[in-house]
Design a protein that fits this description.
It catalyses: a (3S)-3-hydroxyacyl-CoA + NAD(+) = a 3-oxoacyl-CoA + NADH + H(+). One of its GO terms (biological process) is fatty acid beta-oxidation. It is an enzyme of class 4 (lyase). GO terms for molecular function: 3-hydroxybutyryl-CoA epimerase activity; enoyl-CoA hydratase activity; long-chain (3S)-3-hydroxyacyl-CoA dehydrogenase (NAD+) activity; NAD+ binding. Pfam families: 3HCDH (PF00725), 3HCDH_N (PF02737), ECH_1 (PF00378). By secondary structure, the chain is an alpha/beta fold. The protein has 30 helices and 17 strands. The strands form three sheets. An eight-stranded mixed sheet has the order 12-11-10-13-14-15-16-17. The longest helix is centred in the C-terminal third of the chain and has 21 residues. It folds into three domains: about 270 residues, 2-enoyl-CoA Hydratase, Chain A, domain 1 (Alpha-Beta Complex); about 180 residues, Rossmann fold, CATH 3.40.50; about 170 residues, N-(1-d-carboxylethyl)-l-norvaline Dehydrogenase, domain 2, CATH 1.10.1040. The mean pLDDT is about 95. α22 crosses α23, α26 packs across α29 and α28 packs across α29. It binds 3-hydroxybutanoyl-coenzyme A (3HC). The site of 3-hydroxybutanoyl-coenzyme A has 26 residues, from α2, α3, β5, α4 and α13.
C-alpha cells in the first residue's frame, strides 16, 4: 500500500513531513494512520540532525479536511468512536511534546482534525489565498473537536474567540486567522515553505495569547470565567432548544480542561464517542454526504456547463442586489444591473457596498479587494453593455406580462445563446417562456432571501428548456456559492409548495384560538429557526400570501389558507417591513424588544380569543404532516428528482431542522407506517387535506423507506 506520509530531510536540518493520501482529492485523517505516523515520529525524535519539522500537504489546494467522516460513520459503538478520538489525541500530544520545532504550512482548508494537527505544532503559517480556511466545523456534524481542539484552541487564542469558533463551526479566512492569533504568519503561496522552514529553524518561543482587553479581564478570574460559561450555556440553550447535544458538550470540555488538562482530554474523547453515535450526528453527516455528492452533479447528465463570462441583473431591488453581490464577489463575473431608474441601480450597488465595507472595517478584507469587487458591478437604464451578457437574471415584480416583456428585450439586446433566468417564486416558467423566440434559453433560477446568506437555489426548467441551459445555470449557481436543486416547473416549484400548507395550517390553528406565539414556539422547539408567523412577518405577509391563489389554482382546496387572513392585508399588515404584522415592531428597528411580542390587536382583527388548547407536539404534528405529505407528492410527481434533493431543498431553503435530516429522512425515522396512520387520523377526524400521498401508501404496503 502506498504511504500517505513522506519525510524528506534537508541539509539544513529541517525535515519536511508531507501528507498526501493516495487516491483521494483531499487529505483526511484515518484511524489506520496511527502506526505509520508513530514510526515517522520515532525517526524524527531519534535523528539528532533533525532540528525542526514542517508539516505540509501534497495536495494542490488543500491542507487537511479533518477526520474522514465516512470512517466516523462506520463506527459501530461509542467505544469505537472514543478510541479514534483517543488515538488522534495521543499522536498530536506526541507532536506537541517532541523537543523539536514543528511548523504547519497551510494552504487551502485546514479543518477539524486538520486544524487540530496544526494546533499541536509550535508554529502555523498559512497562505493569504482565498482557498485557505481554518476552522473546527465538527459542531455542524453534531460532533465536537475530538483530537485536542477543545483544549488547544482556547489556550492559543483565548476562551471567547475559541468558543465562538467551536460553537458555530464557522471557519475563518487567512487574514482573520492571523488577526485572532491562530496562525503566526500569513504569506503568499510562493513563499509559504520558505517562511515555514525559517520558523522550523528557530527555537520555540513562549507565546502570549492574543486577546482583546475585555477578554483579558473576563478570562483572567475564575469569577469572570464562571459568568462567561454560564452565559454561553444560556445562549446555547436558547439557540438549540436542547435539540443539539454537541454545543453543550463543547462548553463542558473547555471548562473542565481549564481546571485539569488531562480530564479535559479524557472528557473530549468520551463525549466525542457518544456524539458520533447520536441520531443528530448521523443526520448531519447525511447532509454533508448529500451536499458533497450534489457538488459533482451538473443537473443534466453528461453535459458540462458553458462558461458564463458576464451577467445582467434586471431589477435592482433587494433580490437583484443580492444576486449582483453573489455574482460579482463569489462567481467573480462582471455584473450589469438594468433598472428603470438610477435609484434602483444605486440601491442594488449599496447592497454589495454595505456587505464589503463591513468586511473591510473588520479588517477581513483589504480596501483594494473591495474596490476590485465593486468594480465588477455597473448599472444602466437601457440595455447598453448587454450584447456580451451570457446570462440575464430577472428579479422584477411578479407580473407575467412584465416578465414576458423582459424575455423579448433580452432576446433583442443579447446574443442568441444568452440564458434568460427568472427569479420568480410563483409564476410557472412555461408562462414566462410562452412568447419567447428561443424558449430553450429560458429557465427558472429561484433564490431565497437574503440572497447572500441563503444557500439554496431552485433551477427550474419548463418543458422546452434545453438540458444545456439547465447544466449551465446549475454550474453558474455553484460558482455563486449556492447549492442548486433541479426541480420541475409548476406552482410553488418545490420549496414554496411544501412550505405553503405548513404555514396555512399554522393559520388555521391560530383561527382555532391557539396563541400565535405558542404556535411559533412549538415549531422552534421542533427545530425550525423561526416559527411560521415570525417567518411571514419577515418575508412580508403580502408577499407570503400571494402564492396561495396560484397554488390553489393548480392543486385545489388543500392549499387554502384562512379566509380571515384577507383582513390582514385590508388592514395594511405587511409584517416587519411596515412595522405592522403578527408581532409588535415598536421603537427602533434593531431594538431588543422589537418583534418579540405578539401584537394583540391582531386577535381582535381576526376575531379570535386566544386560548391555548393544543400541546406543542400536536401543533408541530399538524403543521409538519402537511409538509411531509406534500414533499412525498412532489417526489411522486417528479417535481424533485430524489428524496435527497427534497431533504437538502427543505433544509437549505426553509430551515427544516438539519438534525432531523430533512422531510424524507425524518419520515424514514418516524416510520412510513406511522406517518400514514397519523395522516389518516387527521384525514378522518379533521380534514381531507391530510389524505396520504399515494406514494406513502405504496411504501407502507411494501415496507419501503426513502433511503
Ligand atoms: C476528530 C476530529 O475533530 C473530527 C473531525 O475532523 S470531523 C471532520 C471535520 N471536517 C469537516 O467537517 C470538513 C468537511 N469538508 C468540507 O467542508 C469540504 O469538503 C471542504 C470545505 C473541505 C472542501 O470543499 P470543496 O472544495 O467544495 O470540496 P468537496 O467536494 O466538498 O470535497 C472534496 C472531496 O473531499 C472529501 N472530503 C472532504 N472533507 C472530508 C472529510 N472530512 N471526510 C471525508 N471526506 C471528505 C469529499 O467527500 C470529496 O470527496 P470526492 O472527491 O471523493 O467526492
Amino acid at each position: 500500500m502506498m504511504s500517505a506520509f513522506t519525510l524528506e530531510k534537508r541539509e539544513d536540518g529541517i525535515a519536511i513531513l508531507t501528507m498526501d493520501v493516495p487516491g483521494e482529492s483531499m487529505n483526511t485523517l484515518k484511524g489506520d494512520f496511527g502506526d505509520e505516523i508513530s514510526v515517522i515520529l520515532d525517526q524524527i525524535e531519534s535523528d539528532a540532525d533533525i532540528k525542526g519539522v514542517v508539516i505540509t500537504s501534497g495536495k494542490k489546494d488543500s491542507f487537511v479536511a479533518g477526520a474522514d467522516i465516512s470512517m466516523l460513520s462506520a463506527c459501530d459503538t461509542v467505544q469505537d468512536a472514543e478510541t479514534l478520538s483517543r488515538q488522534g489525541q495521543l499522536i498530536f500530544d506526541r507532536i506537541e511534546k517532541i523537543r523539536k520545532t514543528f511548523v504547519a504550512a497551510i494552504h487551502g482548508p485546514a479543518l477539524g482534525g486538520g486544524l487540530e494537527l496544526a494546533l499541536a505544532c509550535d508554529y502555523r503559517v498559512c497562505t493569504d489565498s482565498d482557498k485557505t480556511q481554518l476552522g473546527l466545523p465538527e459542531v455542524q456534524l453534531g460532533l465536537l473537536p475530538g483530537s485536542g481542539g477543545t483544549q488547544r484552541l482556547p489556550a492559543l487564542i483565548g476562551l471567547q474567540q475559541a468558543m465562538k469558533m467551536m460553537l458555530t463551526g464557522n471557519s475563518v479566512r487567512a487574514s482573520q486567522a492571523k488577526k485572532y492569533g491562530i496562525v503566526d504568519d500569513c504569506v503568499p503561496e510562493s513563499i509559504l515553505m520558505d517562511v515555514a522552514v525559517g520558523l522550523a529553524g528557530q527555537a520555540v518561543k513562549t507565546r502570549t495569547v492574543a486577546k482583546s482587553m475585555v477578554s483579558k479581564v473576563i478570562e483572567s478570574t475564575s469569577f469572570g470565567r464562571g459568568i462567561m460559561f454560564s452565559k454561553a450555556r444560556e445562549q446555547t440553550m436558547a439557540q438549540t432548544k436542547g435539540n443539539y447535544p454537541a454545543p453543550m458538550y463543547i462548553i463542558d470540555c473547555i471548562e473542565l480542561g481549564l481546571k485539569n488538562r488531562e480530564k479535559g482530554y479524557a472528557t473530549e474523547a468520551s463525549l466525542f464517542g457518544k456524539l458520533v453515535m447520536t441520531p443528530e450526528s448521523k443526520q448531519l453527516r447525511g447532509v454533508f454526504f448529500a451536499t458533497t455528492e450534489m457538488k459533482k452533479e451538473s443537473g443534466a447528465d453528461g453535459l458540462k456547463p458553458k462558461v458564463i463570462k458576464k451577467i445582467g441583473v434586471l431589477g435592482g431591488g433587494l433580490m437583484g442586489g443580492g444576486i449582483a453581490f453573489v455574482s460579482a464577489t463569489k462567481a467573480s463575473v462582471p455584473v450589469r444591473i438594468k433598472d428603470i431608474n438610477e435609484h434602483g441601480i444605486a440601491s442594488a450597488m449599496k447592497y454589495s457596498y454595505d456587505i464589503l465595507n463591513k468586511k473591510v472595517k473588520k479588517r477581513f478584507m483589504l480596501l483594494s479587494q473591495m474596490q476590485r469587487q465593486m468594480a465588477n458591478i455597473t448599472g444602466c437604464l437601457d440595455y447598453s453593455g448587454y450584447k456580451s451578457v451570457d446570462m440575464a437574471i430577472e428579479a422584477v415584480f411578479e407580473d407575467v406580462n412584465l416578465k414576458q416583456t423582459m424575455v423579448a428585450e433580452i432576446e433583442e439586446h443579447c446574443h442568441e445563446n444568452t440564458i434568460f433566468a427568472s427569479n420568480t417564486s410563483s409564476i410557472p416558467i412555461a408562462d414566462i417562456a410562452a412568447k419567447a423566440k428561443r424558449p430553450e434559453n429560458v429557465v427558472g433560477l429561484h433564490y431565497f432571501s437574503p440572497v447572500d446568506k441563503m444557500p439554496l437555489v431552485e433551477v427550474i426548467g419548463h418543458e422546452g428548456t434545453s438540458p444545456q441551459t439547465i447544466a449551465t445555470t446549475v454550474g453558474f449557481a455553484k460558482r455563486q456559492g449556492k447549492t442548486p436543486i433541479v426541480v420541475k416547473d409548476g406552482a410553488g416549484f418545490y420549496v414554496n409548495r411544501i412550505l405553503a400548507p405548513y404555514m396555512s395550517e399554522a393559520g388555521f390553528l391560530a383561527m382555532e384560538g391557539q396563541p400565535i406565539n405558542a404556535i411559533d414556539q412549538a415549531l422552534v422547539k421542533f427545530g425550525f429557526p423561526v416559527g411560521p408567523f415570525k417567518l411571514l412577518d419577515e418575508v412580508g405577509i403580502d408577499v407570503g400570501t400571494k402564492i396561495i391563489p396560484i397554488l390553489m389554482n393548480q392543486f385545489g382546496e388543500r392549499f387554502a389558507s384562512p379566509d380571515a387572513f384577507e383582513k390582514l392585508l385590508e388592514n395594511d399588515r405587511k409584517g416587519k417591513k411596515n412595522g405592522s404584522g403578527f408581532y409588535k415592531y415598536s421603537g427602533k428597528a434593531n431594538s431588543k424588544d422589537s418583534g418579540k411580542k405578539v401584537d394583540e390587536s391582531v386577535y381582535t382583527l381576526l376575531g379570535i380569543t386566544p386560548v391555548s388548547k393544543y400541546t406543542d407536539s400536536s401543533v408541530a404534528e399538524r403543521c409538519l404532516l402537511l409538509m411531509l405529505n406534500e414533499a412525498a407528492m412532489c417526489l411522486e410527481e417528479g417535481v424533485i428528482r430524489s428524496a435527497r434533493d427534497g431533504d437538502i431543498g427543505a433544509i437549505f431553503g426553509i430551515g427544516f431542522p438539519p438534525f432531523r435530516g430533512g422531510p424524507f429522512r425524518y419520515m424514514d425515522e418516524l416510520g412510513i407506517d406511522h406517518v400514514v396512520s397519523r395522516l389518516e387520523h387527521y384525514a378522518t377526524s379533521y380534514s381531507e387535506k391530510y389524505t396520504p400521498a399515494a406514494i406513502l401508501l405504496e411504501m407502507r404496503d411494501e415496507k419501503r423507506n426513502f433511503y
